[in-house]
Design a protein that fits this description.
The protein is of the alpha+beta class. The protein folds into 5 domains: 2-66 and 682-709, no CATH class; 71-192 and 642-674, 3-Layer(aba) Sandwich (Rossmann fold), CATH 3.40.50.410; 201-300, Immunoglobulins (Immunoglobulin-like), CATH 2.60.40.10; 305-532, Rossmann fold (3-Layer(aba) Sandwich); 543-631, Immunoglobulin-like, CATH 2.60.40.1930. Helices cover 24% and strands 34% of the residues. It contains 16 helices and 38 strands. A hairpin with a 2-residue loop joins strand 12 and strand 13. Helix 9 packs across helix 10. The chain is flat.
Length: 713
């Protein structure tokens, strides 16, 4: 123990002069008081001054003590299905269990507060005494969430000295584990299991529909297959719907990891949704057959999309869009014989105009012909009744722009009365919302997160556009404050995609020479036409699944929009959807501007329907419904190779150490498993403010009473 003064010692030195002054002043009193009373008054005044001076000096007592603290260690054991992979005579999980059962390891953990968890796409508490009974059934691996969840669930978080991870290092869902390790504030120690080579396996990489799907026309599926350790072997790929087989094709497997493409076909006899099953026959010696089957959702149309392509004058942009759309087997494209402005007006609103016969109208820099008079009114009415419009701006449209045009009210942005078309080259990038939108969503397996940044710049764009509430920016300028270039929105029952730029033909032409992918530009227009042709639900509540098919272990993604009575974006609504079967309720979070989103772990494989509803102020305002499929093909089975490099990087950024599983004894030397002596300090105030002031108050009352008694007051 020790005593110290928080205040200055000068205050204590003032006590003596104050005492002398009090004695001196009470020597003569008027009227005169007896000597005992004078001494008492002097003592009271000295005591009051003393208590107040002690408060100013703040005398403190420090009490120190030492205690032995046991270290806390979190153990994370990977129980995803990749840990079931057999390498040699045992699986990865069995080798981990053998290490955890070593007497030397158990002895090293004596006196350590160990909290163990099993993790995959979930996390659960386990006991190290019973890890041998654990089943590796996780369909995905989320290492980052496992680290953060274990720290949150630890009752002794302040004493955690390290996290021990036993895993093959596979991570395929969730946040970046390296960043999570750096932010955890706790050193990570890792023991990695599994070899660097891919195990023997044949898998379907992906299946894509080539072109469209229409009743009575043969649909073609391109199936990508790859294998390891089966080069030159032959197998067969089959196409099923339920248990009915439609087509089969033999394929010769390539070198390790080489993708081989095989085509399968079928002629559907009815329209609507079809769920096909693509199966590659398993070969003897495969490590897993979980990835030998894939589900493919195909929405078969009764007929092709009817598209009308218009422009004020011939040009390179119009020719490029014509080629891009004519090459799409889903599109039935029509183009007027002549493109003069008067012909364009006649096409839109003349005596023989038949907009109702088309699903989508594509206008390339139409100018005044589409912005004023009867053509603008006819086009607006057609879109609001369920049509789809794609409009590209150019010199003619900017020059003839009219902010009061009916067509201007359809567009997802507002322009000033005199818009400005910049002539400076500008690169594009995908917006934050573009990755999940059908118009700009990249195909599965894309090797670049944003292929637009690799393309050559556009020759300019229309500046100063203000995006309307509820609209979605898809492409923007690649600058600090990106300006909108391509936007999408709904207009009544219809849909609109607007493009504030031209010159995409040049970007597509130069893409191959600059390391870009020209298919990115062509795909933009094809996807836009496909999205515009499906106006769908026109009610106040519109909710959809971001994908018709999900892999097990991933995340369901839902998006939606809610509108008020005037079909303006409705914020602050309570939106949720019910899954069937399962009776699961999923809330959608408000993203602003009438947009709502939700993510949810995938349920068991199967077909699901959902019903979404929205309420404002407790009153339901509408519903929507949809469906999706969860296939047995898991994220874990996509790549079964061990990834010790990930564990090593997590350990490095957090200040820990990562070693192969067989070097577990060496890792113990690096881990802080020793007990430590902790010195704790407790501080007590000898002169607490509360009771000191109470004593001063009592003394002042006594002094006042005596002075009153002897007539001094």
């Amino acid at each position: 123990m020790s005593v110290q003064l928080a205040g200055s010692v000068i205050y204590l030195l003032l006590w003596l002069p104050l005492g002398v002054f009090a004695w001196y002043t009470y020597r003569w009193t008027r009227p005169a008081a007896p000597v005992p009373a004078t001494l008492v008054l002097t003592g009271l005044r000295v005591a009051i001054a003393g208590f107040l001076l002690l408060l100013l000096t703040e005398p403190l007592v420090n009490r120190w003590r030492r205690r032995v603290v046991e270290p806390a260690l979190l153990v994370l054991l990977d129980v995803s299905t990749s840990m079931n992979l057999a390498e040699g005579d045992s699986t990865r999980l069995e080798r981990v269990n053998d290490v955890l059962g070593q007497p030397a390891l158990q002895e090293a953990l004596v006196g350590v507060d160990v909290q163990a968890f099993g993790f995959a796409d979930y996390i659960m508490p386990v006991s190290l005494d019973t890890v041998g009974a654990l089943v590796a059934d996780g369909q995905a691996t989320d290492v980052a969430s496992a680290v953060s969840a274990a720290l949150e669930q630890s009752p002794n978080r302040a004493e955690v000295r390290g996290i021990l991870i036993l895993s093959d290092g596979r991570h395929n869902v969730g946040p970046d584990p390296v960043r999570g390790a750096a932010e955890s504030g706790v050193p990570i120690y890792a023991l990695s299991t599994g070899g660097p080579d891919h195990p023997p396996d044949v898998q379907i990489v992906r299946t894509e529909l080539a072109g469209g799907a229409y009743v009575g026309q043969k649909l073609e599926l391109q199936v990508e297959v790859r294998a390891w350790h089966f080069a030159g072997r032959r197998t067969t790929v089959h196409l099923y719907e339920s248990e009915r087989r439609f087509d089969s094709a033999e394929v010769t497997l390539g070198d390790d990891g080489q993708i081989v493409t095989v085509g399968l076909g079928h002629t559907p006899e009815r329209g609507g949704p079809h769920l096909y099953r693509v199966v590659v026959e398993a070969l003897e010696g495969e490590s897993t057959t979980d990835n030998n089957e894939e589900l493919v959702y195909v929405d078969v149309q009764e007929e092709r999309i009817r598209v009308l392509l218009l422009g004020a004058a011939p040009g390179a942009e119009l020719a490029f869009l014509r080629r891009a759309l004519e090459s799409d087997s889903r599109v039935n494209l029509e183009l007027p014989e002549r493109l003069q402005a008067d012909m364009l007006r006649t096409t839109l609103a003349g005596p023989e105009a038949t907009l109702a016969e088309y699903d989508v109208v594509v206008m390339v820099d139409p100018g005044a012909a589409a912005l004023q008079g009867e053509p603008a009114e006819a086009l607006t009415a057609w879109v609001e009744s369920g049509g789809g419009m794609l409009m590209l701006f150019g010199l003619h449209t900017v020059r003839d722009w009219m902010a009061g045009s009916p067509v201007a009210g359809l567009l997802p942005f507002e322009l000033p009365a005199r818009p400005y078309l910049s002539s400076e080259p500008v690169r594009l990038r995908m917006s934050a919302a573009a990755g999940n939108h059908p118009v700009t969503r990249q195909s599965e397996g894309s090797t670049h997160a944003d292929p637009w940044t690799r393309l050559s710049p556009l020759p300019g764009y229309v500046q100063a556009a203000a995006v309307r509430s509820g609209a979605t920016t898809l492409l923007e300028t690649d600058e600090d404050d990106g300006m909108p270039v391509v936007m999408a929105d709904r207009a009544g029952e219809g849909r609109v995609v607007a493009v504030l730029a031209g010159g995409f033909w040049r970007t597509e032409l130069l893409a191959s020479g600059t390391g870009g992918n020209p298919e990115v530009v062509r795909r933009l227009w094809r996807n836009a036409v496909q999205w515009l042709s499906r106006a769908g639900n026109g009610g106040r509540v519109r909710v959809w699944s971001e994908s018709p098919v999900y892999r097990s272990g991933g995340r369901l993604e839902f998006a939606g929009q809610v509108f008020d009575e005037l079909l303006r974006p409705q914020e602050g609504a309570e939106v949720s959807l019910e899954l069937e079967p399962g009776q699961v309720s999923i809330p959608l979070l408000d993203q602003g501007g009438g947009h709502y989103r939700a993510q949810w772990p995938t349920p068991e494989p199967g077909q699901y329907r959902f019903t979404a509803s929205a309420a404002v102020a407790g009153r339901e305002i509408g519903q929507d419904e949809g469906h999706f499929v969860v296939e047995p093909y898991t994220l874990e089975s996509v790549d079964m190779r061990a990834n010790p490099e990930l564990l090593a990087e997590m350990a490095r950024v957090s200040g820990g150490v990562a070693l192969p599983l067989q070097h577990w004894a060496e890792l113990l030397e690096h881990m802080p498993l020793q007990r430590r002596v902790q010195r704790e300090r407790a501080v007590y105030s000898l002169w607490p403010l509360s009771w000191s002031l109470a004593v001063v108050l009592v003394l002042l009352v006594l002094e006042w009473t005596l002075r009153k008694r002897y007539g001094m007051i």
